[in-house]
Amino acid sequence: MGAHNVSDWQKLPLSLSELCIETTLRCGQSFRWRKINDEWHCVLRGRIISLKQDASHLHYKVTWPNYAPGLLTSPVSMSSACAPTLKDNDSDAEKDDTYSLLHSYFALSHPLSSLYTQWAASDTNFARRAPAFTGIRILNQDAWEALVAFICSSNNNISRISQMVQKLCIHYGPYIGTIEGEPFHDFPGPEALLGSHVESHLRHLGFGYRAKYIAETACILSKFKPAGWLLQLRNPACPAFDVLGEKYGTPDIKAAAGPATYRAAHDALLELPGVGPKVADCVCLMGLGWGEAVPIDTHVWQIAQRDYSFGKGSKTKTLNKAMYDAVGDHFRSLWGTQAGWAQSVLFTANLKSFAEQASAVKPESGVKVTKAESAAMVYEPASADPEAALVRFEENREPAIAKTNSRTRKRAVTTAKVSVESNTKVAETSQVEVCTRRRSKRIKAAAS
User: Residue limits of the HhH-GPD domain (predicted)?
Assistant: First the structure.
């Protein structure tokens, strides 16, 4: 391969209060950014983007590949037709749209400082913690990448998710270039993960039970969903970056041909293997532009218990669908249409990797909810093992775990009826079992 075409450093005027990449790129949103020699690097839309930041500017440069990234179908069945072809990389450099890509990726149309002020005015707990964690933005990522990455997040941590995503790119994604001796690959499309061998190979790479979900989801999106299905789930007010259609041959769907609401998009994602409420909310928030989506994982559940008085006065020890919705609805009423953005600030402040930064927050007693809010909430106790409770809740969609008994489901329905929307079904798991079995049969038939 010839030498890469590398641009000069360019800069985008941006204060640290509007974007802090040292925090935003490490807080469990994207899992492909790597820091090398005080610069951050990641492949986005077929190019390596390098970032560094000072107090007033975001600096960036681009490394273009010296070939057109081809579609890899498999690490063991790649044909010559799939191999990358040489190209004139000067053509990409001449029509460099990286400035617009970064503006879209970091969702810079949202005035973050104003949002922080708004959230602090409505929430004293946010006002106390936010000054130590300014500049945290929600990334406007590719929906397919977000979907696969957060399927990997089940019962997992940021470091291990990052390792899985990197392995996926190395074995299935097109090679783009090298930075300081480290190879960088783009994220593979769903067609690259087709084939009867994919699940077993992913298990060999350490994906565990998630391997089945990734392989099945890739098959569903490639063979059973209409072209551009994920794009149709996007928030119309937060469109995907337009280069997606040009670079990767997918339809450039700019209108909301499908669901035009967060709830509709969330419910559509729940039909996919390995996607429970938390994963669906992560994809809605970070891959589809629905700012009101509030993913409730172990950290957010701890925050809800510690700072917002959830989890008191109930005898049930698991986080069920009713409680999940109650916590999300409370935060949406508190923070508004960009509640997921505010949640990400408190989520980051709760991570062990930011403990030193969080130590600057002054201690204060938990924020109490009002009597009116309490009357509308369903309470669950603080679990002795919140991580285990959330894992059990997320995995209740798996066929082997979904067989909850009818007595438990009746109790959950009775407890939840004061706060759950009329169309929410706590005992959804039995239906998921049937759908999963049918879907698996269709996928196996298609793969054969």
Answer: 152-344
User: What is the Cα–Cα distance from 64 to 305, expressed in whole angstroms?
Assistant: 47
Q: Where are the alpha helices (DSSP H) in 67-209?
A: 90-94, 98-105, 112-122, 124-129, 143-151, 158-172, 198-204
Dist. CA 38–CA 34, nearest whole Å: 10
**Residues 6 or more apart whose Cβ sits within 8 Å of residue 40:** 21, 25, 33, 34, 50, 51, 52
- Write the DSSP symbol of residue 240: P
Angle at CA 300, nearest 5°, toward 372 and 31?
150
Please name the helix (run of DSSP H) or strand (run of DSSP E) that holds residue 59, with its range, or none: strand 57-64
| Residue labelled with tokens 């035009």 | 260
The span from the CA of 13 to the CA of 369, in Å, is: 40
Cα 433 off chain centre by: 25
Q: Confirm whether 417 is a catalytic residue.
A: no
Q: What is the pLDDT of residues 184-199, one digit of tens each?
A: 999 999 999 999 999 9
Three-class SS of residue 63?
Answer: strand
For 116-119, the CB contacts below 8 A with 24+ separation are 116/17, 116/345, 118/336, 119/335, 119/336, 119/342, 119/345
d(CA 44, CA 106): 12
How far apart, in Å, are the Cα atoms of 253 and each of 81, 190, 231, 240, 241? 28, 18, 6, 9, 11
Write down how long the chain is: 448
- What residues pair up with 167 in beta bridges, in sequence order? none
Report how far apart, in Å, the C-alpha atoms of 287 and of each of 32, 104, 138, 370, 441 are.
Answer: 15, 12, 10, 33, 29
CA distance 39 to 52: 5
Contact, 318 vs 389, CB < 8 A?
Answer: yes
| Angstrom distances, CA of residue 367 to CA of 128, 265, 308, 353, 364 | 11, 32, 5, 24, 9
Full-model pTM = 0.77
Q: Report in angstroms the alpha-carbon separations of 316 from 170, 216, 405, 416.
A: 44, 34, 15, 12
- Mode of pairing for the β-strands spanning 10-13 and 34-36: unpaired
Q: Tokens 């789930």 sit at which residue? A: 233
For residue range 197-210, list pLDDT tens digits in order. Answer: 999 999 999 999 99
Distances from the Cα of 390 to the Cαs of 74, 149, 153, 339, 407, in angstroms? Answer: 34, 18, 12, 21, 21
What's the CA gap between 340 and 136, in Å, rounded? 11
User: What is the share, in percent, of the chain residues with pLDDT greater than 70?
Assistant: 68
User: Among residues 35, 212, 278, 312, which one is catalytic?
Assistant: 278
